[in-house]
């Protein structure tokens, strides 16, 4: 297939592009290489892809409608995976306009390009953050997600609503993936694994928010990519059993689906830190802090629907995944 991947220099986007190329697909990467975190890491990820003949790259932002339209016109993708977005919960408290520009205006541009480009299937990144103030665990795609606790989460819920509109009006097949905490080699340096690892190796204290009591459904990058590809290959149709009197928010009479994609195995943050300490061979100096604004106490993915429809079955334990991450970190940063 010909697949356009936005956010191709990002953590998930680069890993996905590598897998698509390995199976013989042609991939056009699209990324603005912004400085939300060190662009050199993004460039290093891209350097693993650019030598491959079936890979092309466009350096531009989603909100640049002309550049995006030109990319679609030149490459003529059959399917699109939209992973580009302004990420981060806490950053949204300080820079809200970045989220409106990238996650709302940019996503509208993606939808319009897919509509006019007659795209077979748009897969896009949502987030476990949409569950917000919901305290019912595990999180199920049939649950209400009407109480976000960060602007980032609100923009991701808005993406789901926008996608449904295009699925309904224009029969554009769309699938949203609510990613749960993704970690592994080539991960984002603004997330806990790299932040903790850097400080532990430097002998610096780490801030442990909520006193380490909250849980996260840590999901290894290879399992995530496997799930994305399974979804990409399964173009949704309208749900014949959809009941408009008792609507399921994860499905529709239109060609629209939303899935959780996680490990279905929540891990307490303190246990994650203990595994990291064991793999590094060093103890962390921990500074216990209260919970931060916008953070969710717990995340736990119910992946029943994704497993049923695609056969998705994550297999990587935290112990194995953290070990692989540490091996990569030491090799990449030479420590």
Terminus-to-terminus distance: 40 Å
What amount of the residues lies in strands?
15-25%
Largest sheet geometry: 7 strands, parallel
Low-confidence stretches: none
Please provide a brief summary of the model.
The chain is of the alpha/beta class and 335 residues long. Helices cover 40% and strands 17% of the residues. The chain has helices at 11-22, 39-47, 65-75, 91-94, 96-116, 151-170, 192-202, 221-232, 269-280, 304-310, 318-333; strands at 2-6, 26-31, 55-59, 79-82, 121-127, 174-179, 182-183, 205-209, 215-216, 219-220, 256-261, 267-268, 285-289.
Structural overview:
- This protein is α/β, with parallel strands linked by helices and 335 residues long.
- 40% of the residues lie in helices and 17% in strands.
- It has helices spanning 11-22, 39-47, 65-75, 91-94, 96-116, 151-170, 192-202, 221-232, 269-280, 304-310, 318-333; strands at 2-6, 26-31, 55-59, 79-82, 121-127, 174-179, 182-183, 205-209, 215-216, 219-220, 256-261, 267-268, 285-289.
- A 7-stranded parallel sheet has the order 3-2-1-4-5-6-11, with helices on both faces.
- β5 (121-127), α6 and β6 form a beta-alpha-beta unit.
- The longest helix is centred in the first third of the chain and has 21 residues, at 96-116.
- The radius of gyration is 19 Å and the shape is globular.
Please give the structural blueprint.
Elements: E1 2-6, H1 11-22, E2 26-31, H2 39-47, E3 55-59, H3 65-75, E4 79-82, H4 91-94, H5 96-116, E5 121-127, H6 151-170, E6 174-179, E7 182-183, H7 192-202, E8 205-209, E9 215-216, E10 219-220, H8 221-232, E11 256-261, E12 267-268, H9 269-280, E13 285-289, H10 304-310, H11 318-333
Parallel strand pairs: 1-2, 1-4, 2-3, 4-5, 5-6, 6-11, 7-10, 8-13
Antiparallel strand pairs: 9-12
Helix pairs in contact: 1-8, 3-5, 5-6, 7-9, 9-11
């Amino acid at each position: 297939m010909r697949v356009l991947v936005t956010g191709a220099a990002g953590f998930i986007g680069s890993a996905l592009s590598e897998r698509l190329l390995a199976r013989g697909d042609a991939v056009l990467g699209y990324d603005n290489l912004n400085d939300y975190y060190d662009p050199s890491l993004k460039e290093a990820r891209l350097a693993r892809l650019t030598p491959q003949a079936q890979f092309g790259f466009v350096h531009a932002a989603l909100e640049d409608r002309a550049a995006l339209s030109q990319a679609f016109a030149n490459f003529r993708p059959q399917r699109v995976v939209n992973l580009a977005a302004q990420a981060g919960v806490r950053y949204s408290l300080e820079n809200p306009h970045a989220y409106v520009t990238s996650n709302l205006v940019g996503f509208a541009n993606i939808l319009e390009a897919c509509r006019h480009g007659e795209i077979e299937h748009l897969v896009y990144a949502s987030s476990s953050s949409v569950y917000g103030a919901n305290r019912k665990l595990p999180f199920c795609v049939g649950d209400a997600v009407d109480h976000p606790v960060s602007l980032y989460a609100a923009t991701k819920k808005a993406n789901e609503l926008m996608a449904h509109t295009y699925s309904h009006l224009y029969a554009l097949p769309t699938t949203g993936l609510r990613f749960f905490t993704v970690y592994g080699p080539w991960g984002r340096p603004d997330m806990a694994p790299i932040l903790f690892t850097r400080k532990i190796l430097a002998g610096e204290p780490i801030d442990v928010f909520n006193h380490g009591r909250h849980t996260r459904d840590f999901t290894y990058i290879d399992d995530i990519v496997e799930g994305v590809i399974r979804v990409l290959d399964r173009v949704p149709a309208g749900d014949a059993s959809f009941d408009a009197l008792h609507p399921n928010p994860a499905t529709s009479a239109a060609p629209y689906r939303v899935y959780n994609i996680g490990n279905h195995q929540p891990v307490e943050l303190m246990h994650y830190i203990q595994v990291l300490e064991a793999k590094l061979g060093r103890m962390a100096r921990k500074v216990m802090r209260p919970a931060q604004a916008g953070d969710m106490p717990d995340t736990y993915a119910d992946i029943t629907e994704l497993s049923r429809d695609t056969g998705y079955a994550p297999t990587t334990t935290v112990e194995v995944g953290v070990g692989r991450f540490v091996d990569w970190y030491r090799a990449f940063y030479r420590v």
